């Protein structure tokens, strides 16, 4: 069964152009399935006023929801005219990320697309608090779409963790590569590259141990990473020229390689935890994300459970 048959687009309420919807239609035309354009809205002033009765407040809410529904329909009109089926859903909710995740749980979506804004001077992608909440807590993959065209011949770069002894990393590496290869083959026969970073010698070790040879240490660490990468690529019959094992911090190595390869998207795993135990896929992944200049596809490990629960008394 083809993945990403049920796509949720988180509509950006601040602008008329919707890159995430554009990317969703692009995927839909190649994969089939259905698209829902989703917008949670809230106006605190309507809740605060004492001049309105509860019924009047409800009427005003419905009026705002109706206006925004029509506005999204206008944004999507060219796609609708072309025969793309897009369901439009606008709800009243004061925490966008919770509303989006609850909709994912309710509708059993298998992909969320959301626009990521770009810092003009730095070219870097700027993530909002809602973006970070989704990346950490959304149970299905989250695709953050940069507001510029996909590069010509853009590649997919999969960030893998080759060093960890934690049991969840190997199956997550396998899942990231497998899903990226499947998607790349279905969408555009996109070239897929794997990248892993290995650490440089800690200076304090070299200082404290006079007989310590940094070059031997570096060679041993690099060798371990190359062996792990070889095992991973051979599992999927990936040519060695599409794999990269570079020295340095992941948050430098991965964005630099993505830029060098003119990547369209970087795929990485996020486990939603914080603290030291999160290792590469928690804190470091977030640092990698912060340095990217292209699309990002964040995938959770199997068995991940979102901390957000369904709202029993959701407003219409």
UniProtKB/TrEMBL annotation:
Record carries keyword Cytoplasm: yes
Main location: cytoplasm
Top-level lineage group: Bacteria
Domain UspA: start-end pairs: 4-146, 174-300
Subcellular location: Cytoplasm
GO CC term, one of those recorded: cytoplasm
Alphabetical keyword list: Cytoplasm
Function recorded in the entry: Required for resistance to DNA-damaging agents.
Family that this chain belongs to: Belongs to the universal stress protein A family.
Name of the protein described by the UniProt record: Universal stress protein E
């Amino acid at each position: 069964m083809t993945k990403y048959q049920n796509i949720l687009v988180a509509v950006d309420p601040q602008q008329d152009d919707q890159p995430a919807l554009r990317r969703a239609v692009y995927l839909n035309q190649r994969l089939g399935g259905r698209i829902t354009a989703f917008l949670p809205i809230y106006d605190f002033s309507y809740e605060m006023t004492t001049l309105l009765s509860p019924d009047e407040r409800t009427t005003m809410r419905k009026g705002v929801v109706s206006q925004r529904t029509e506005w999204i329909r206008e944004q999507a009109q060219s796609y609708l005219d072309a025969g793309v089926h897009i369901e439009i859903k606008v709800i009243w909710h004061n925490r966008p990320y919770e509303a989006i995740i609850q909709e994912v749980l309710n509708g059993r979506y298998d992909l969320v697309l959301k626009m990521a804004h770009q810092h003009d001077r730095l070219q870097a992608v700027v993530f909002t608090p809602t973006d970070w909440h989704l990346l950490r807590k959304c149970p299905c993959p989250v695709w953050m779409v940069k507001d510029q065209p996909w590069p010509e011949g853009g590649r997919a770069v999969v960030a893998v963790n080759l060093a960890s002894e934690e049991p969840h990393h190997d199956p997550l590496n396998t899942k990231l590569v497998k899903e990226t290869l499947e998607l790349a083959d279905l969408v555009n026969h996109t070239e897929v590259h794997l990248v892993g970073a290995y650490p440089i010698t800690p200076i304090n070790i070299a200082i404290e141990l006079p007989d310590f040879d940094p070059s031997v240490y570096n060679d041993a660490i690099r060798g371990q990473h190359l062996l792990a990468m070889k095992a991973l690529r051979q599992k999927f019959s990936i040519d060695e020229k599409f794999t990269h094992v570079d020295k340095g911090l992941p948050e430098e190595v991965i964005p630099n390689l993505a830029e060098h390869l003119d990547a369209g998207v970087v795929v990485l795993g996020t486990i939603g935890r914080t603290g030291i135990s999160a290792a590469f896929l928690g804190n470091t992944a977030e640092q990698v994300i912060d340095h990217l200049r292209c699309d990002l596809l964040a995938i959770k490990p199997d068995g991940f459970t979102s901390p957000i629960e369904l709202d029993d008394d959701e407003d219409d």
